[in-house]
Backbone:
């Protein structure tokens, strides 16, 4: 089996590459080849027995998408994209990468016209939803994004569903909740504090909490996200039906519950490194975000998230901190 | 005031042009200029006191959209598009006209960068919805189109909302129900019979009914559609909020109720010209269509449809048949 990962140099892309390389198989089929694509050259998987091809390319550049599917990958994980903050700051870049890049990939697949019909797993986001929301967002809630990123993801979902309905590809769209705890340095994303208030205190550093502890949000670990992607790759077409874009499950909790989980696992000294520092701008942005995602269909289809925020904290300590933290 | 109508040569375009020309004003402002754009040269309005400009152009062709907004129309009615059947048969043409054409128009407006921010009234369709449905489709129901036309309209709505949110234009999207009675010859649209079973009998001709009389559907007259467009042009931005795409109201009724209305107005001899001729293909297609549209927000915002199918029949006799029919 040949697998293509676009956006392979990103956080999820790197973790997915590592996992597939280690497993050497997916849903019982041996992985012979991994093609890793990104605008920056991706890191090859160190422990992979099969062949690896690297492509440094922007899918929106004419000809690049055709090159990406030249080897007819059986499964494509389409993770490439400009993130929320950047898509809002640079309107043209967001539409070029997130919309034109996705459309170019779909068109390149359609252009093969040789019966090629890969499973295409598309990473969408709960940013396709926009406030006001009901208490819990059901699977049939309308998409009224309040960011250009969310709009581009919603359009990508619609294209994916139409290309799939027409038989040009075999798509599954998965709407990821906030992925927490993101390893690495703090970034400027408005959602950054959801990871920061866990990651920084565990590293012995202070972290600012810019919103009230009553804020509710839905989270999943990077490990759960990789699990969603791999599970989507193996879903039977007839189990999916026509509605191929699915809200993923996650742990719905308040910031206070996040902090309580951290204290249970790492103690009071760690939790004391969280500084309450209200930021009205961040608080306003977060106010427009989805809170509780129902994800009934995804759960019924076997997608699994963590069952508590404690688990999410433990996964971070285990995967990204070698099992330890700064007490 | 300067008004641009794209798709001005179509059925709705012609009726809207005629109405605006006759009124000579819209929401209390005098119409100085009408620009009529279509791929085929549109017919000028005969009784218009202001200036009329004609543009024969395809908005998806580079440079044409810029030419269309060169005169900075205050209001744009964007009706241009490939219809449902054609978009399904010719995938490339549907995406080029319905998606690329709409995006080109939005980009041309954004490219002016001189503070130009026209009211853009976009005609969407209830084809953005796809079965299965609840009994009544609420305003917050998700968009899962089951045709390429519906997908293209859903994408157009998303683009319109994002360009509006970013301040590049001032958009309102209106999802039209089935427009009945369409004047003229029968066409091959699967929905054609909804008009045909009224129009043909009134003209002394037989009409085939391919579906059971229990089929429920939502209808509005061409006159109501023109009313929706004109009302949308005058809606206050703050009354609309962020959710600018609205399902329009209509008359929800069964085919049996349509026929009963025809009989009340035109008598038994006219109704006897309807032949029951089951067509499993048409019946299956119609089965996937929205039935009852709630349109609560649109009604609250003052959009008005007919209150009975009788009215729809009378409007057809009045507008398209000079007040008479073949008994």
Residues:
């Amino acid at each position: 089996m040949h697998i293509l990962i676009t956006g392979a140099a990103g956080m999820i892309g790197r973790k997915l590459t590592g996992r597939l390389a280690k497993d050497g198989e997916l849903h019982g089929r041996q992985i012979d080849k991994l093609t890793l694509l990104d605008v920056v050259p991706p890191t090859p998987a160190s422990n992979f027995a099969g062949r690896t091809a690297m492509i440094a390319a922007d899918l929106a550049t004419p000809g690049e998408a055709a090159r990406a599917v030249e080897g007819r990958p059986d499964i494509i994980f389409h993770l490439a994209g400009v993130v929320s903050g950047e898509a809002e700051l640079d309107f043209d870049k967001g539409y070029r990468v997130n919309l034109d890049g996705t459309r170019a990939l779909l068109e390149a697949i359609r252009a093969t016209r040789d019966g090629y019909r890969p499973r295409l797993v598309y990473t969408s986001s709960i940013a396709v939803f926009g406030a006001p929301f009901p208490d819990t967002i059901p699977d049939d809630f309308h998409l009224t994004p309040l960011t250009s990123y969310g709009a581009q993801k919603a359009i990508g979902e619609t294209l994916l569903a139409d290309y799939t309905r027409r038989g040009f590809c075999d798509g599954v769209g998965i709407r990821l909740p906030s992925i927490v705890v993101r390893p690495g340095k703090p970034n400027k994303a408005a959602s950054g504090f959801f990871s920061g208030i866990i990651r920084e205190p565990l590293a012995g550093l202070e972290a600012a909490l810019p919103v009230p502890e009553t804020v509710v949000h839905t989270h999943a670990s990077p490990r759960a996200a990789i699990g969603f992607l791999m599970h989507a790759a193996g879903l039977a077409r007839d189990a999916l039906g026509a509605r191929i874009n699915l809200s993923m499950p996650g742990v719905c909790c308040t910031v206070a519950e996040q902090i309580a989980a951290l204290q249970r696992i790492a103690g009071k000294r760690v939790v004391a490194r969280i500084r309450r520092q209200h930021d009205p701008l961040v608080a306003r942005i977060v106010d427009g975000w989805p809170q509780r995602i129902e994800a009934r269909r995804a759960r019924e289809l076997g997608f699994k998230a963590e069952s508590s925020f404690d688990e999410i904290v433990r996964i971070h300590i285990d995967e990204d901190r070698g099992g330890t933290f700064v007490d």
Summary: Residues 91-111 of chain B form the longest helix (21 residues).
